[in-house]
Design goal:
By secondary structure, the protein is α+β, with helices and mostly antiparallel strands. The chain contains 18 helices and 34 strands.
Amino acid sequence: MPSETFAERILRFVQAKGYRPQQIEEIARALGIAEEEQGDFHAACRALMRTGRVVLGSSNALLPPSPPGKIVGIFRGNPRGFGFVVPEVPDTHGDLYIPAGATLDAMTGDTVRALVRRRGGRGGKRLHEGRIVEILQRGQSRFVGELQHQGPNWFVLPDGYTLHVPITITDRTAKGAQAGDQVVVEIVQYPTARQEAKGVIIKVLGRRGDPGVDTTSIIEQHGFPMEFSEAVLQEARAAAQSFEPRRDLAGREDLRTLPLLTIDPADARDFDDAISVKCHEDGTYELGVHIADVGHFVKEGAGLDAEARERANSVYLPRMVIPMLPEVLSNGVCSLQERQPRLTKSVFITYGSDGTVRAARFANSVIRSMKRLTYEQASAVLEGKRGRMSAKVVALLEGADRLARVIRARRLREGMLVLDLPEVEPVFDADGRVTDVRPADRSFSHTLIEMFMIEANEAVARLFAGLDVPCLRRIHDAREDLADGSLQRFLRVLGHSLPKSPDRFDLQALLDGVRETPESFSVHLAILRSMKQAEYSPEAIGHFALASEHYCHFTSPIRRYPDLSVHRLLERYLLGELVKPPFRGDGKQARSPRPGRLISHRRTADPGAVLRLSVSARSEDRGSPGVQDLATLGAHCSANERRAEAAERELTLVLTLRLLEKSLGSEVDGVVTGVANIGVYVQLEKYLIDGLLRFENLLDDWWRVDPSHGAVIGERSGRRITVGDRLKVVLSRIHLPTRQLDLALAKLLGGVKSSKPSKAVDRKLKRRRERRSLRASLRGARRSHRG
């Protein structure tokens, strides 16, 4: 069938009325494209994209091009009525501002079409705003909140940041729900300027505030799948039961006598990485990173694999894990349990005394961990508190500590960024209620494992780069983000400067200069927020923050699907299906890793295996179905990762606010992290959450916002509160549905400047009071006249 026929069918499909954005694979299924026609079909898609007749949007969905002056994107709403449209296809507008009254009835997460119009310019840049003209696809139809009533009217005020209006309930008795119950509601009528939101209760979660109900609410709110189907569980059980260590040893490097151990959090149950370290007399090292061979049990294309791919990652919430794989695998035969034979993929990296990589090799292996350590136990040993720990464990830890410090020093020389952002974790009582928060453990044992995992990930990515084989990389490109000027403007407020287009070493110098200063947290947080989040993609962009040219995720296949996809590619290499590019006539490789990063390609599969050169898509061939599949997978995994992280942050915030509800009226210490037209944002030093100190709760004064200096200024008192200042604030109000914490000022601590207002300021304030009094009198007169 000619490609033109495919092109016509594709255009007819995406231009049809009612079309919703779909991925290329979904369109192929909808059009009934046969397996042998896939090549021509993808070629037609690429031809249409090259000519601009269709475009590739977010999540790799195929879209008709937007008419001039229109864009398609995801709407992000604000409780104050305005919002932004994040374009499906990046354009010169960036995120398009939608003013209040122009949002139609769109909600956060909806895919919308917006009309773009210019609204002047500033600073040499054109400014645009938009008006939503069509909602293409609803992003969410289920919401979670507390069932309430006022007289005969029953409603649910949704939790979170998506819908900011109450949902009227038409079937209050359908599930036996009572006032105060936390419920799941299905929308049957979306809210508009002329009609209210209506919904039906589909599930009752329990009494709001009871132990566990907040966690269940977050799970329902974010739509995480809890249970595995029976078919998937049966497949996982069969895979676990088929494990026979003696039989499965064939073709693997036997490392069961090699001293190695695992280091994980105390509550961990899935151990997917173990380490070994050899320190040689000449000052060199050999690091071994041994990762659970999940691909041996989860076969590509099977139902278990499809479920893992859909979930994309395990979700880690306080006191709960929603696993990517059934626990019979994740906590069973895939977990590198102490003294149990386990199948692994091993990376061995040889280092010079200065931490430079000299060689790397890869192997299918079998190990037996000699000890399962927690981070606290490892830290105690490294601090000299050995207790009854064996000499082998102590020696391994001490060698690992030396090597990790050498690697870290080398990576810092190369420009790796280290952000000092403390974290807290909730403390629970026996009934599951939060009683306090405590700082998360930040000992060097965490850094030790982090350095080793980064090195293993980088070694695998370098291997595939040297083989010129596309893989799902972990990329982080922050150059444009750092050059847009917003970070520089914020730093000038704090008295610091950065070049217009800073590199990693400029950022390193800044971070080192503010450590252990009052503005340290604000600067570190600003740098984090100024850079886009790392994501999964086959693009060879590198990882900016890690100063890594080639990087992927390989070390956590139990809990991340991208790692499993990399494992499968490594398996093909170990079986001899992927080889180095052919040599040129001058004896040199056509393509090789960068100088100084040598790779030893020694294989540990059956020495008699015949090497088979597979025909694979090259990394520069962006039209290759293989690369397209990786791009689709990367977008899916990146989105699910962000969803999981957002759920963890939100639940931690909810639990912390629930704890602080018992302390309303008490005083706490905080640091100013931002200023706005409605007040000052203050982060509570112990709890690490932001609260809003509204101007009406900020002394008896009129406050002027000075955004260029990150300050608010009291016009009567002359007081000046700036980002980085420390305050003592009062917990005045908590509104859990919207996750809001309101504060009142108790005391100005250090750094707050004050000066006596001038006579001109006094006259200005007097005139302002007189104008306000006159306006109030006029309003009163008009009301009397109407009456």
